[in-house]
């Protein structure tokens, strides 16, 4: 997975110029870095998406197969009832 670089020095300098103390700026930049790293761990990759698309296609084909079998069974049941009714 591609790593997104997080420049803590720029963040610390920016926070210090905004009125934060150096310790506050370092703490906040570390917290932001950890939050950014943990949030990118759960991103889907192109490989994940292609696997999901294949699984969806498989499920769709299985669903269509069972729907066809159900419809064929219903037609056979209706014809059997009509045959029994008209005898």
Automatic annotation (TrEMBL):
Segments traversing the membrane: 66-86
The keyword Transmembrane helix appears for this protein: yes
Domain of life of the source: Bacteria
Keyword terms: Membrane, Transmembrane, Transmembrane helix
Protein name as it appears in the record: DUF1640 domain-containing protein
Biological source species: Candidatus Magnetominusculus xianensis
